Amino acid sequence: MSHSQATDKMMVELRNLNKWYGEFHVLKNINLEVKQGEKIVICGPSGSGKSTMIRCINHLEEHQKGDIIVNDIPLNEDIKNIEAIRKEVGMVFQHFNLFPHLTVLENCVLAPIWVKKMPRKEAEAQAMELLERVKIPDQALKYPGQLSGGQQQRVAIARSLCMNPDVMLFDEPTSALDPEMIKEVLDVMIELATEGMTMLCVTHEMGFAKTVADRVIFMDGGQIVEENEPHEFFNNPQHERTQLFLSQILQH
Amino acid sequence: MSSDMSSSGHKPDGSAKEKAPPVSQPKFWNDPKKRSLLFQVLLLSVLGFVFYTIIDNTLTNLEQRGITTGFDFLTREAGFGIAMSLIDYTEASSYGMTFIVGLLNTILIAVMGIIAATILGFILGVARLSDNWLVAKFSALYIEIFRNIPLLLQIFFWYYAVLRTLPQPRQSIEFLGSFINNRGFIFPAPVPEEGFGLVTVGFFAAIAASWLIARWAKKRQELTGQQFPVALTTIGLVIGVPLVLFLFSGMPLGLDHPELKGFNFKGGITVIPELIALWLALSIYTAAFIAETVRAGILAVSHGQTEAATALGMSKAKTLRLIVIPQALRVVIPPLTSQYLNLTKNSSLATAIGYPDLVNVFAGTTLNQTGQAIEVISMTMAVYLALSLMTSFFMNWYNARIQLSER
């Protein structure tokens, strides 16, 4: 059990967040506060709205009601605010979404050069440093298609980190990986967590949740059903729905 | 067939090595190699016989009608005029010259059409995927209308319904010294005077300077990260420098103004309505197909790519330019090549409205006057074949170049 690195600074705040897909009410009155350095693991059955929720934070999905505040910037219609928030929020996707026409290094320097207007040399030096941290500096000049799934996901993490984000969102980062590759990605994520990154992870890796999470959130039907620190969450779930879910995924 | 293949006496490898059973020779009609050889010999002899018959038959017929074969007719005087020519051509020129004139006119319309159709097609293709409802629907409407009406009808529409209904030369629509009437678009021809050389020099100097600036800007971005509006500067320089020089050297450019003499205009440059109609029809028609190709290419790039770029903070325009288009091009280029080939070959519909392209001039008038059908038609076909092969060779080379960067 890690002791919390959370500070008092509020990093992400969701207030009464509501979202509809047409008639379908996907997110119902979500309230969530994440402090700087906190690690949140979000789990729940498929279709419960967990991915949609974190995708709202960097405005990949539009919410209809409620407030989202990231690092004191309110997420509203203002394009400047949306851009500012995206610069502070990194995201890792289930299917990596690396740019296949660019080398690993180009993938990592593209946004720093074009968005942050960083000199190429500096961007490349920083990218190499981060590739070293995810333990694949030797693959820098290869194309994504030449790497294994686990390596690709580590590149994707490095690519996000190149923008120096304050918050990292992980959308089921290990679900598309072969079992033997899950560990290499989780190791990188654990390392990132110990360095004090604010993290919101949608994942079913319960081992990961037990090791690094400050809080585990269980969602069902577009609502946050239960929220607790990991030990309590796993050993003493309060709600029937949570108990059922846990019994199903921890059976094996 | 396949069962024959498997029964051909290959010995099983591995364990059977020590005691190789006697390899039985298959009957020769069951041996796939001998079989295929037999079929090929048969096919070749049938083909040879067919060609021999055709050639023999043709030669006999030509002899009976007293037509001499060969390419001697190309040096004889043509004796007919051509409405539009990019090189000096008179009625006294040879049939060989009619070939050149027609060829150049065909190349002209093909190149003009390809450029216009590509630009229009890319804009429409991107527009159809726009978030703007009006823009997207307009593009969809355009595409559905123009790709579903036969090209020949569209050529007729532009020629007979639009350009032919313009006023007579005497009632020409006039603006800025140019005239539009049913004989075409007539505008003043520029005549360079002394000192115009300076403007030309300035123009090329501006191009060179733009190139240097682009290189410098790229280097500076790599070193310091600062971006520079290269495209805008280039446009400014290439237009501005010659313009300033032109004004300061006292506008050393005379104009040969077209004047109405009798029933028609003398002087100036005339773009005949046949060229305009054909160009409009070919570009507008082909652009609809190119737009669909471009749309397919963009849709083929997975949505995750756009999301990843967006999450990294990239703007829509940069995402399109740096992520989507480069990946879409790999899908777009092969069908785009087909569209270019189609446009080039479709330009032979020129003959329907009398635009003097290769088919109209050479395979039309020249063929009628000389009767050298075999020579004329084979030369014409060879031209289209060569043009098409050159286009696809270039496009394949370009495709291979951008595909290579994949891995």
Automatic annotation (TrEMBL), chain B:
Family (UniProt): Belongs to the binding-protein-dependent transport system permease family. HisMQ subfamily.
Residue span(s) of domain ABC transmembrane type-1: 103-395
Family matches, as NCBIfam families: HEQRo_perm_3TM (TIGR01726)
Region (Disordered): 1-27
One protein family per Pfam: BPD_transp_1
Entry keyword annotation includes Cell membrane: yes
Biased composition (Basic and acidic residues): 10-20
A molecular function GO annotation: transmembrane transporter activity
Subcellular location as annotated: Cell inner membrane; Cell membrane
Lineage, opening ranks: Bacteria, Pseudomonadati, Pseudomonadota, Gammaproteobacteria, Oceanospirillales
Gene3D superfamilies: MetI-like (1.10.3720.10)
Cited PANTHER family: AMINO-ACID ABC TRANSPORTER PERMEASE PROTEIN YHDX-RELATED, MEMBRANE COMPONENT OF AMINO ACID ABC TRANSPORTER
GO cellular component assignments: ATP-binding cassette (ABC) transporter complex
Main localisation: membrane
Membrane topology, as annotated: Multi-pass membrane protein
Protein name stated in the entry: Amino acid ABC transporter permease
Biological process terms in GO annotation: amino acid transport
Domain of life, source organism: Bacteria
This protein's record includes keyword Protein biosynthesis: no
Segments traversing the membrane: 37-55, 99-127, 139-161, 195-216, 228-248, 268-291, 376-398
Keywords from the named record: Amino-acid transport, Cell membrane, Membrane, Transmembrane, Transmembrane helix, Transport
